[in-house]
Design goal:
The chain is 31% helix and 33% strand. It has 4 helices and 7 strands; from the N terminus they run βααβββαβαββ. β2 and β3 form a beta hairpin. The two termini are 23 Å apart.
């Protein structure tokens, strides 16, 4: 069973560690490199989550174990962007990511955008499949150069 848990100030260390794992995974697609002390640089949206009221951060939990995280940005009244979405490898292909995405869409009804970089083919496949199933095919996709799915739920 998957649960979305709103991140709180006391979760700062957990979110920071999940950010490092996210950056590690993402480094396969970018020129992001470790610092000399073995730490990936901060991701801008992760720095902002504790002070930007338009960002909603959730820890994905499978039973009692952290399984990933999601950051949703409110763009306008009932308009949202999936700022960041990360599922630990252990929980991929288990339905955890799909369940988390669907729960977020239900939690924030309205217009959505979900973006992926062109290099991340697995993310593109995941989001197309999840959004197609959730919207019954009622979404648009653009390439500018990011791949972006737009839909309303």
């Amino acid at each position: 069973m998957l649960e979305l848990v709103a991140a709180r100030q006391q979760d700062r260390d957990l979110v920071a560690r999940l950010e490092q794992l996210y950056s590690y995974d993402f480094s396969a697609f970018t020129d992001c490199a470790l610092s000399p002390d073995g730490v990936f640089p901060d991701v801008k949206s992760f720095r902002e989550i504790w002070k930007d009221p338009e960002l909603f951060t959730f820890i994905l939990c499978a039973k009692t174990e952290p399984a990933g995280l999601a950051i949703v940005r409110r763009l306008a009244h009932e308009a949202y962007d999936m700022e960041q979405f990360f599922v630990l490898r252990k929980f991929r292909r288990t339905g955890a990511g799909t369940a988390a995405a669907q729960a977020l869409f239900q939690k924030f009804p309205g217009a959505w955008t979900v973006r992926q970089i062109p290099q991340n083919k697995a993310a593109q496949s995941f989001w197309r499949r999840v959004i197609d199933a959730y919207t019954n095919g009622a979404f648009e996709e653009t390439k500018t150069p990011q791949i972006t799915q737009s839909f309303t739920c």
